[in-house]
Amino acid sequence: MGKFTTKPIETPTIIRQLLPLFFVAAPPAAADVFTFETPSENIQCSVGLEQDSSDIHCMIVERHGPPAAPRPAGCVTDWGHSFYMTDHGPVQMLCEPVSYLREGFDRAEYGVTGTFGGFVCHSSTEGLECRNLDGHGFFLSRAVQRVF
Known about the structure:
This protein is mostly beta strands. It has one domain (13-147). The protein has one helix at 13-18; strands spanning 32-37, 43-49, 54-60, 82-86, 92-94, 106-107, 112-116, 119-124, 127-132, 137-140, 145-147.
């Protein structure tokens, strides 16, 4: 799976210009990583784009209620905060410490829907919903986290 970078890496100028619009639809020539967060700054995501694949890792910093799936037996750190998916296949919840980074994220304003790589995401006052090409995805808000 690999680690995710939380700051933009080698992002081409055109992508930097389009990020305020939230998402980029054009396929990159090489691997690109960029980040975004919801206006509440409670959901932060990293997106990796390659020519033939993409992945997204989102972390909800503060959440309430039960997690979207039971804690695995071997998970001894934070659970229910971290969600990962590729452009095909089901969502994976990750057992990893919650980290909140204060800088380096573009804002995904409420009401914006965007397509990039193999994902469609919608940011709203209710939360963030992302789906991949197979229809798998997640919905994240402070009160509810759902995997489908």
